[in-house]
Amino acid sequence: MKTFVCIKYVPDTSEAVVKINAGGTAVDSSRFSFDINDADNYAVEEAVLIKEKCGGTVTVLSIGPKESEVMIRMALAKGCDDAIRIEDERIALYDPLMVAKTLAGAIKGQEFDLVLTGCMASDDGQMATGVALAEYLGVPHAAMVKKVEMLDGKVKVQRELEGGLMEVLELELPAVLTIQTGINEPRYAPIRGIRAAQKKELKLVNLDDLGLAASEVDSSASKIVLEKLYIPEVASTAEVIEGSDADEKAEKLASILVKGGLV
Amino acid sequence: MGNVLILAEHRQGAVRDITFEMLAAASGVARDLGGEVVVLLPGSGLDDLAAQIAAYGVKVLVVDDPLLANFNAEKYQLVLGAAIDAYKPSLVMVGHTAQGVDLAPALAVEKDLPFVADVIGLAVEGGVLKATRQLYSGKVNAQVAFKPAETCLVTVREAAFEALEPPGGGAVEKIECPLKEDIAYRQFVEYIEAEVGDVDITQSEILVAVGRGLREEKNMPLVEELAAVIKADLCGSRAAVDAGWLPHDRQVGTSGKTVKPKLYLAVGISGAFQHVAGMKGAKAVVAINKDPDAPIFNVAHYAIVDDLLKVVPKLTEKLKELKG
Ligand SMILES: Cc1cc2nc3c(=O)[nH]c(=O)nc-3n(C[C@H](O)[C@H](O)[C@H](O)COP(=O)(O)OP(=O)(O)OC[C@H]3O[C@@H](n4cnc5c(N)ncnc54)[C@H](O)[C@@H]3O)c2cc1C
Ligand SMILES: Nc1ncnc2c1ncn2[C@@H]1O[C@H](COP(=O)(O)O)[C@@H](O)[C@H]1O
């Protein structure tokens, strides 16, 4: 079993103030902390679980900056075998189709049974890269997978639909699966694995190495134009409960809830 | 041509709301593009569904074939692709749903279509089609323009557009199924219904909802005690369920339950649209979050911006006293 797992290095903006750069087309990410995308963490675990059950190897694939190598080493420490990092500023990263075409360029020509991606990247939330990648590779796919069972020459999966309904389907291998969070319990990297990961191969490539022309994946190839980013106007009508400290705010809220007959 | 082609979405015999929301989103765009709205309805045994959609005053192209009985992304891609070839719409709309995200990106690649995912707004400016989408779970909006093309493709976010009242009229036209035999490489097996748990949170009057902001399972007693004092049931975000703090039947949101309590107390939840979709029907929403820009505050009635680890114990204590 030969598996590729695609992982993305994303900023944690859940508690951060987000500011747009002067040009209006990028977010100032200098103060964010970055880590593996949530869903991709589950994809790595699933790839390692499949390898532990069926044998074979797992190759990590990521388009990202030098700093993301910490994340890649962590995936290697959890049991992935080797990694390819793609770095090339010409790729139109705002367009998931260009990202998918680049990833396909790194996989094409190699034997593989499975490609796992996350179902959504938490930064740009396209939910598109994995399914587009499958089409570029010319193989079947399933999106938002919550269960994987390897069969002979096939994979049986459960796709999570709205309301928690599951769609069970079978795909012929090779195939691409986009992994949904909660499919497994991602492990922590064992100390021994962290040491071993330092010795595993992490290849750095650019578009030329992949045999891709820039004009296939750059902003001229993309059929969309990212015109501007802006902070949306907040339509909040919430009554903000003020107070000198948390205790005072909590007490005020308690009175509001009781007086308003809400509890 | 200027027409907008909508892929109708239905499952287990019912048209899904996104179909009607896309009809609302499409009408303005079709007018600005100088065309009309047409709906493609693939499936099997579709007479009732076709009539329901046609009531919105649009033409419904029905592809009724037993081979299309259950959604199958590969088959639907073939059917939608054939319709694009035949009708050459300027814009194709697919739901940003479990069905749509499994289908649209592959179709975009196959047909080489300009594609924008998860749009919440569409406009035609100076003849150029533009879409609005969101990044960083709603903290940033992006305006994206389509380069000139015969056909553009979008997936449309659920609940981003409000369905209108059906004006009546419309027409149903049966078209031939381009698929002649079953495909082996992807086969539908069955649906498995979501598990039913001990408490049905869709019926709860008061809900205390917990998110990743709680940090660790060992902090669960904080919200459990709060819930006990106000006789609330506990529920949570997907992140809380994925972490194993709560069973799946307590998850609120698109892939969980839709709740409509009298009071919804969101603790450490950021307010991603998939979560908000499940709780915005609550009569009163209280949000406790230390990030003043958290999108949950857009749907809250009362907001506390502070550390929940400090707020929640005090809130529990004070409520106990007042209700005592
Ligand atoms: C197909 C699909 C379906 C999905 N379905 C659902 C669904 O049904 N339901 C759902 O909820 N999500 C769903 N999601 C996931 C959704 O996109 C979000 O990832 C999820 O809702 C985030 O959960 P959260 O708010 O608990 O965590 P986060 O987004 O990480 O937010 C945590 C919040 O806690 C706050 N916080 C942290 N520490 C503290 C503290 N000490 N005091 C106060 N506040 C603090 C932070 O400021 C932050 O706002 C779905 C995603 C996909 C792709
Ligand atoms: N730069 C990248 N490098 C590697 N994988 C990526 C990258 N961007 C997206 N992906 C993969 O595609 C998935 C879905 O991303 P998206 O379509 O942007 O929501 C992610 O979870 C990753 O698995």
Describe the protein in words.
The complex is a heterodimer of chains A (263) and B (324). Chain A has 263 residues and is α/β, with parallel strands linked by helices. Chain A has one domain (2-217): Rossmann fold. Chain A is built from eight helices and 13 strands. Chain A has helices at residues 38-54, 69-77, 96-107, 129-137, 191-197, 207-210, 214-217, 246-259; strands at 2-6, 9-11, 34-36, 57-63, 82-86, 114-118, 141-150, 154-160, 166-172, 175-179, 202-205, 224-230, 239-240. In chain A, a hairpin with a 5-residue loop joins strand 8 and strand 9. Chain A is globular and about 65 Å long. The mean pLDDT of chain A is 96. Chain B is an alpha/beta fold and 324 residues long. Chain B folds into two domains: 4-174, Rossmann fold, CATH 3.40.50.620; 201-323, Rossmann fold, CATH 3.40.50. Chain B contains eight helices and 17 strands. In chain B, helix 2 (47-54) links the parallel strand 4 (37-43) and strand 5 (59-64). The longest helix of chain B has 17 residues, at 17-33. Chain B is elongated, with a radius of gyration of 22 Å. The termini of chain B are far apart. The model of chain B has no long low-confidence stretch (mean pLDDT 97). Classes of the chains: A alpha/beta (263), B alpha/beta (324). Strand 13 (239-240) of chain A pairs parallel with strand 17 of chain B. Flavin-adenine dinucleotide sits between chains B (211-213, 237-240, 251-256, 268-270, 272, 274-275, 278, 288-291, 294, 307-309) and A (14-15, 119-120, 144).
